[in-house]
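User: Can you recover a sequence for this backbone? Please restate the input before giving your answer.

Assistant: Of course. Working from this structure:
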């Protein structure tokens, strides 16, 4: 009888049949099969808006709010390459590409703006953060580009600093998101900043970070005044690269549990 049972068990194993606890031999655990972005709600914030520089919207742009440390304005025009390619257009194109990549991975994605137009302004940075709070986003990624000295290049991340009464609840998750974005993007090949130590800047006066109640970071993807970064940012292939690098950062963050 023992010989017969042993033979049956060996046959079952060789055929990959169910042998214990309802699992098939060689089957991967559910946690291994699940994609890290499946079911996540992510808010993408393409920095600025083309219409922020339109004189028609000067009154809206003049709005100001206290952000816990200082009084700041609604939004800005953003920077541009020396050839005139706007930060607002760059961030918009990268965000659209990233949105598609995230949705392909099973995430639900919302955006803080729905257009890139000279006939539209804002929204204000505090309203962008409030959108993340309202929808209960698992993460908010604010996509930007720097306008620094020409020799500066590469990406870095801004994370929230401690502002009493404002950011105590988001400092720890924000730092964790920032470190994950840095590690994941660097591993994927994103050029590292040569002017921000460890690619991390802790900020106590960034309005979007201070108003947020969910894990939020600002990613400065590069310096638009640097010739190398500007070429990459201005090209469609470069914009695809930036989206892929941001995706890698988010994958790393959510794979850490």
């Amino acid at each position: 009888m023992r010989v017969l049972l042993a033979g049956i068990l060996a046959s079952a194993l060789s055929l990959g049949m169910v042998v214990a606890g309802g699992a098939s031999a060689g089957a991967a655990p559910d946690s291994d099969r699940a994609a890290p972005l499946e079911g996540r709600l992510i808010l993408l914030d393409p920095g600025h808006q083309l219409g922020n520089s339109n004189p028609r919207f000067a009154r809206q742009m003049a709005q100001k709010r206290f952000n816990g440390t200082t009084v700041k304005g609604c939004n800005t025009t953003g920077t541009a390459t020396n050839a005139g390619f706007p930060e607002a257009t760059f961030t918009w194109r990268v965000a659209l590409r990233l949105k598609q990549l995230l949705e392909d991975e099973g995430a639900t994605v919302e955006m803080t703006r729905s257009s890139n137009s000279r006939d539209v302004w804002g929204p204000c940075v505090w309203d962008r953060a409030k959108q993340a709070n309202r929808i209960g986003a698992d993460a908010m990624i604010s996509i930007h580009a720097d306008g620094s000295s020409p020799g500066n290049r590469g990406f870095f991340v801004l994370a929230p600093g401690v502002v009493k009464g404002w950011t105590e609840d988001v400092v720890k998750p924000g730092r964790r998101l920032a470190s994950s974005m840095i590690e994941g993007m660097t591993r994927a090949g994103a050029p590292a900043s040569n002017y921000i130590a460890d690619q991390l800047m802790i900020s106590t006066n960034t309005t979007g970070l201070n108003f947020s109640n969910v894990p939020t970071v600002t990613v400065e993807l590069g310096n638009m005044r640097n010739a190398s970064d500007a070429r990459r940012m201005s090209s469609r292939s470069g914009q695809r690269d930036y989206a892929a690098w941001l995706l890698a950062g988010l994958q790393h963050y959510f794979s850490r549990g």
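That completes the design. The two ends are 48 Å apart (CA to CA).
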